[in-house]
Amino acid sequence: MAVNMKGRNLATLHDLTLEEMQNIFSVCADLKQKYRTGEATPLLKGKTLAMIFQKPSTRTRVSFEAGMTHLGGHALYLGPNDLQLKRGETIADTARVLSRYVDGIMARVFAHQDILDLCEYSSVPVINGLSDLTHPCQVLADLFTIIEKRGELKGLKMAYMGDGNNMAHSLLVGCAKTGMHISVATPKGYEPKADIAGWARDDARPTGARVEVTTDPVTAVKDANVIYTDVWAGMGQENEHAERVKTFQPYQVNSALAAHAKKDYLFMHCLPAHRGEEVSAEIIDGPNSVVFDQAENRLHVQKAIMALLM
Ligand code: CP
Ligand code: NVA
Hints:
310 residues, alpha/beta, Rossmann fold, 2 domains, 5-stranded parallel β-sheet, 4-stranded parallel β-sheet, 12 helices
């Protein structure tokens, strides 16, 4: 573990240096290898992770919980009805109390400000397990997956199709930091937030990554090495679903659109997916799809994050 990250929070990828990201990837590769060979890795023996979930989850919940078990520690699931938050206890007080009991806090929240408040008031490391603004753990797993498949990130091109949401934000910053070109195509009115695109442009300066935001799906996918998409209506936007399905149709990842990418493109999706909406079944279930490798790597990359921070 070359870079000391003990005690740090992971709120967004913008907070990490390239060296720290590479450190996470190298610890991740080591832990993945050891998990495969059955070598024990009790790096967090006796430690506890509190997992706050304001929203549902399959991957984040199970991979963090299993990951803590693999590292010799214990994870505590705290769903929307398990804490006093709904009855008016503040995030600040919750953070201060939990810090007296546990060694780390992972949280999935609606408002990103809740992550920032946890970071401010907690005395133990806080890990963002998805907010309305960002999803850093997912993108670290995604970038690790691309490294496994293609050996590098620098100079490759990612095309992101659809909603300029939390995934688009974290991909913009993650690609820019690691020298991967990124082109995000969204309908008008659904662009990524300008300040996050600004972070990505700042982060791209030292790495030479090109950062593009467009409304044209073909421009974005042209010669891409990776095509990424996400649901058109995220958690909390269910009431906009019908309207969004109409607006987002031209951004569906299907064979006609994918024909503009490099022949050996990787198809990626954070999951859960809606076949027939943001992606056709033939693409997500086809030979270029690596969606389950991404999901698997959530486990390994988050073990690395916890082992480094906690
Ligand atoms: N990709 C992801 O975060 O999945 P869950 O919502 O199932 O955790
Ligand atoms: N953008 C999606 C990601 C789910 C992992 C959402 O926020 O619901």
